[in-house]
């Protein structure tokens, strides 16, 4: 299936035909990664999903955790009790 590169602001854009989107199971708003594979070839891949907070928290280890830092002495009623 043929398509055309067109000017879009300061960039260039490619319109992806609906049958190609349906076959790749892509929709408007999906994030893609683009890479030049060789001269005249471009690869598009679905971008990896953004990890959830619980997935990020599971990656915290004692090796990659920052030490506690002091913000100075309490001045008013901002004392936090843990």
Side by side, the strands of the main sheet go 1-2
Radius of gyration: 24 Å
Output the CATH class name of the domain at 5-58: Mainly Beta
User: Do you know the CATH topology of the domain at 5-58?
Assistant: Pemi-like Protein 1, Chain: D
Q: Main β-sheet: number of strands, strand sense, barrel status?
A: 2 strands, antiparallel
Mean pLDDT: 89
Query: What fraction, in percent, of the residue positions are helical?
Result: 10-25%
Output the helix-strand order: EEHEEH
CATH arch. level architecture of the domain at 5-58: Ribbon
**Count of separate DSSP helical elements:** 2
Which structural category fits the helices and strands?
alpha+beta
Quick description:
The protein is an alpha+beta fold and 82 residues long. Helices cover 16% and strands 26% of the residues.
Offer a few descriptive terms.
82 residues; alpha+beta; Pemi-like Protein 1, Chain: D; two-stranded antiparallel sheet; two-stranded antiparallel ribbon; elongated
